[in-house]
Amino acid sequence: MSNTAHDQEWVRKPGEAANGTACTLDQYQAMYSRSVDDPDGFWAEQADRLDWFEKPGKIANWSFDPVDIKWFEGGKLNICHNAVDRHVAAGNGERVALIFEPDDPAAPNRHITYADLQREVVRMANTLKKMGVEKGDRVTIYMPMIPEGAFAMLACARIGAIHSVIFGGFSPDAIAGRVEDCQSDWIVTADEGLRGSKKIPLKANVDAALAKVAAKAVLVVRHTGGDVAMTEGRDHWYHDLSADVGEECPCEQMDAEDPLFILYTSGSTGKPKGVLHTTGGYSVWTETTFRYVFDYRPGEIYWCTADIGWVTGHSYIVYGPLQNGATALMFEGVPNNPDHDRFWQVCDKHKVNIFYTAPTAIRALMREGDAHVTKHDLSSLRLLGSVGEPINPEAWRWYHGTVGHGKIPIVDTWWQTETGGIMITTLPGAHDMKPGSAGKPFFGICPQLVDGDGMVLDGATEGNLCITHSWPGQARTVYGDHERFIQTYFSTYRGKYFTGDGCRRDVDGYYWITGRVDDVINVSGHRMGTAEVESALVLHPKVSEAAVVGFPHDIKGQGIYCYVTLNSGEEADDVLTGELRQWVRKEIGPIASPDHLHFTPALPKTRSGKIMRRILRKIAENEFGSLGDTSTLADPSIVETLVEGRLNR
Ligand code: 6R9
């Protein structure tokens, strides 16, 4: 496909139609109105693009008070069939589904066609069955960014097993906690992962996790060829176990509301929650959002740089693109290895047309200068995307100007693990872009801003972002703890889904996400509960108490600032600082590594013993002038000590 043709098309003004799928502003408005006025009609039509073994009898059937969410009831389908088999059946088996770009630029690429993908997924599915995996079983997937990770997800979906993918950067303890929480008897992993030529000991991490919790079997994909220990009777090499499996494996006919996957995500309290998505709604939501937001056209190369361990990888590397018959690139490596031009070199090499990444990567690469970008031919690009955190206007302008030659649209997509797919974004062709604003609600999405008391705020205003009506891709529950689901999302503002984000709406009805309003911080686009880091710290034998807050960080968006009180008799020094950093990395994973450890004799507490985080946040942000009222503190003098401690750093 000629890139020049795209360039010309994309010079068109907002409002001019793009190829029938993306829409003009008028079309957006008409479709949006229909989607909220007649959701049943609208979503029945969208769902019709998928293959159903049985069509749904009912479209929407939900309530937020009491909380009970169902979509497409009576329908039977399989997302693996829609992502793989139906494209082969339609004669598109030779189309490339996945392009694999390995960590080492000199290592060979893989081009996996839809026909190859079908064979690979059937092989993996039959191997899982041979191990004993059955419909409804939970399968943990702890994999590097290699195609076998996607095969494993699709294979689970094919046989009706529920996958729980754990990001390869998480520690053995984090794996153990998740395996235990969803009672997953089965684990799929690889010998090692590779990131920026560093080896990640995935199998060894699984072994360490399984010293704490039991699993029936571990399936190990050979990737680097590194040495790993294999436990007799429990561990199986994939290439051995799959050698004699059959070539047929029909897709299980799943009910629309049958669980598809669990994905653990951080919240403001307690351990990470196993967010549960179901089959029908998630299929329709990821198919529709990918189609309209990325305006994908056959033959194009689409690249989302996320990891399959996060929801962005689930929805926009695997399920969204593949259900649309797209060609998706999967990249194993990191943006700055072997050099800071790795992303742009990959875009050039594979002639990427649509590129979707996170602000933290954009900021890190921006800092390295334009030459890394301009030395590559990026003329194939025609659409850029951003996700994971608010993008600051400076980074937006660099992305638009330097990467996108000043003429390519950017879609800034706001959404969450719990929303399954994109919720607020501009649509290419329909909307003008505003740097730093996510834009307008996607079809079917009804955002509402409320104040702290739940009063609805109209017009141009700022408040807490809620969603008043269900959408197909909405999470249905927290695995094994429906009460926690209700408490977390529907109890702050009764009858509404509360996102946990603050947001401004401008006079044009554009939404500007201002960040989390709860105790969740966003570090390089990764969600982290401050409570998780605190519990990790207090597990250390020398730590008495800890309070963790976020603070603005140039590259990561937010950094992790830890206030730590030691047990009496313990001394704070550089050795202990290093030890605590390592400790948190071991407990959670490298992404939770503290940026600052601030030792303090005490924490600011109210007389009822509540830690005043507001003050801790201000001090971490170096905002000493606006600490607010400290008179309710049990010991107001602690504030001075903390400020001194901050200034002496
Ligand atoms: C997809 C994903 C969700 C949280 C969300 C918000 C932040 C995501 C954003 C954004 C501003 C965007 N967030 N996209 N903030 N603009 N375009 O990231 O899911 O890992 O669950 O994080 O990320 O704070 O609440 P998840």
TrEMBL record:
The keyword Transmembrane helix is assigned to this record: no
Name of this protein: Acetyl-coenzyme A synthetase
EC number(s) per entry: 6.2.1.1
Modified residues (N6-acetyllysine): 610
Modifications made to the protein after synthesis: Acetylated. Deacetylation by the SIR2-homolog deacetylase activates the enzyme.
Residues binding ATP: 388-390, 412-417, 501, 516, 527
Record organism: Altererythrobacter arenosus
Catalytic reaction equation(s): acetate + ATP + CoA = acetyl-CoA + AMP + diphosphate
PANTHER family named among the record's database cross-references: ACETYL-COENZYME A SYNTHETASE, ACETYL-COENZYME A SYNTHETASE 1
Role noted for this protein: Catalyzes the conversion of acetate into acetyl-CoA (AcCoA), an essential intermediate at the junction of anabolic and catabolic pathways. AcsA undergoes a two-step reaction. In the first half reaction, AcsA combines acetate with ATP to form acetyl-adenylate (AcAMP) intermediate. In the second half reaction, it can then transfer the acetyl group from AcAMP to the sulfhydryl group of CoA, forming the product AcCoA.
Domain AMP-dependent synthetase/ligase: 87-469
Entries under Pfam families matching the protein: ACAS_N (PF16177), AMP-binding (PF00501), AMP-binding_C (PF13193)
Record keywords, A-Z: Acetylation, ATP-binding, Ligase, Magnesium, Metal-binding, Nucleotide-binding
GO MF annotation list: acetate-CoA ligase activity
Domain of life: Bacteria
